[in-house]
Every structure is written in structure tokens, then in C-alpha cells.
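Methods — Computational structure assignment.
A single polypeptide chain was analysed. Its primary sequence is given first, followed by the predicted tertiary structure written as C-alpha cells.
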Amino acid sequence: MSHSLSERQLILILASLSAISPLSIDMYLPAFPSIASALHTSIPNVEFSLSLFFFGIAMGQLFGGPISDAYGRKPLISIGLILFGLSSFALIFTNDITLFWILRAIQSFGGGIATVNVSAVVRDRYEGKESARVFSLIAMIMLTAPLIAPMLGALLLKFFVWRSIFIFLCVYAFAILTIYFFFFPKSVQSKAKVTPFQNYKRVLSHKTAMILIVSQILCSSGMYTFITSSSFIYMEHFHIGATLFSFFFASNVILLMLTGKLNAHLVKRIEPFYLLRFGMILQALLGFLLLVFHDQSIAVIFPLIMLYIGSLGFIFSNSISLTLEFFPSISASANAIIGVLQYSVGALMGFVASFLHDGTLFPVMSVMMGVSLCSVTLFLVGVRNDVLHHATPAS
């Protein structure tokens, strides 16, 4: 029955699996006051569970990547989803903030184990331009999660208590598990031994791959910087209301989805390398314009930020596709490195922007421009298309 699935259905399943993380993060954001009240604690204590969630995802990816490369995608995805689903169910009955923290960490650990395999599954089934195209389509669908998650969380809170959010996440996890386990075709992969340190050493010591990874991470950290400061930019600096803020924030996601779809179309005719280079140059240019016009009106800042975020549609999928070409037998391990660095550097840049806060947009725009400029410089100096075109797997 699994073999009758179309490519569109395969992509939809993988995108639904990828959506676990943004749903887990964004759905419960509107519930922070309710959770704090129910657990007799403060909102900052509830916010700490978000930091634990990021840490848990990173650890789950580091743990799950090498084991998946050795024993296969399906067992690890199943284990990760079961762990995520059971901890989500346990969160329904939590009445203590410490237990809430522990369960959120376990939940994210399971989510990390499961989601680190998405890119690896694509690499098992597709190569070159095809993998870049599939990555773009998965990202386009997956990005609907952060778009609708806050609204879905708010809707559940309107009719039910905050625990309903974790009921939803529990049901969602086991639904994806059922669909994946019974319907998804088995991946054809080159099995590797369980040697996490050797796997990570292979990735970290591969010069071209690491330049691609670091360049992508720097680009994405510009987006995380914006996300961290988005409420200050729009609600405090420009004094707009919550409803209009949601519209502005959603516009970034929508444009990112559209550029991802455009990339999926263009990559059929244009090498991923050239599309990636275009995306990085475009983002650096937009970062420069944001810094130059940081003191202008929202009519100038809003479209520049939207285009800055949208440029990532040409960066994410092409960079991952080119990187994983070097690691066909340990693609989950390579993806774990990408995931951990993405969360870590993104969080660091957001912290730097907050630390430099002076009441203006200058610090935020400086960081956004700085990471984009460093990214495109590193890429242009360190990566050549002829090297990628004749790439051989890392040994």
C-alpha cells in the first residue's frame, strides 16, 4: 500500500513530520499566562520551558542522527514520535512547573529524534536538483505551521483550557506515527556503524561542507534575530496593535513559502549553487538597506524585512541539498550538526541583539546585516561550483 503513494503525498507526510517543532513552540505561546496561573508560578518560569525545548531538540538530533544512520529511519522516527506523544499526554496532567519543564524537555528530545530524519529521508530518495526541489516543497508546506499555530492555540484557549493544546499535540504525533509507519515506503539507505563521534568528525572536518553549513546558519540566524526582536520592532517601536502585528509576522512566512515554491520551480533549470548564491547576495543587500534605513518609517522597514526573510527560500533547501551530497551514508548525522548549530547560533544572535538594545532599530539591523554579510563573504570565498559539481562523498 505504501508503494502507491504519490510524490506529493510523500512530501506532505515529511512536511507534517517537520511541523512538529513549530507547532510545539508556537501553539502554546498564547497560553503562557494561563499555564503560569494553573501551575502557580510566573510567566518567566513558563518561558524557561521554551529554552528547554530548544535544548531538547538539539540533544535529540545529536543522539538520533548517528543511530538513524546505523539502524534506519523508520525505527528512530517511530521512537521519537512515541516519546513525543507520551510526554505530550503526560503534560495534560501536570500541576507542577518543575515537572512541566522535565516533560517539555523529554517532549522536545523525542521531537528532535524524529525530525532530524526528514532531510535524511529526502537524501536517501533524491539527489542533486531533485533533492533541492523536494526540500523546497517540504519547507513551503511546513511553514504553514508557524503561520497557523498561534491562531490554533488561541482558538483552543477560547473554547477549552490550556491542556487542550497538549492533547492536540499528542493526537497529532500519534496520527503522524500511524500514517508514517503503515503507509510510508521504506527508505533505501547505506547503513553505517553507530559511531557518533566519527560521524560528526567527518562532517566537521569536511571544509566545503562546513562552509556551506556555517553560511546557511549565519543566514538563518538573521531570521532568528528578527523573530526575537519582532515584538519590539513592530509593537513597541512602531506602536502597532497585536492584530496588525500578527498580519505583519504572517506576511514574512507567506513570502518565504512563495520564494520556496519559486525555488522548487527554478531548480529544475538552474543549478542549486547559483540559486543559493543569489539568495545569499540578496539577503546581504537587504541587510545593508535595513541598516541604512533603520530610522525610517514602517512603510520602508516592513517590506525590507519581508524580503530579507523571503530570501531564505533560495537558501535553505539548496544549501541542505548541496551539503548532504557529501554524506550519503551519514546524512542524519550531518543534518543533526546543521540543526544544533542553527538553534545555537540563532539564539546567540538574538541574545546579542537584545544585549545591544538601545531603544532604536540600529542594533537589530546591525546584527541582521552583519550575519548576512559574513555568510555571503564566506560562501563566495570558500565554495566553487565546480567543486560541488564533482563532489565525492566524505570518507
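Note: Residues 207-237 form the longest helix (31 residues).
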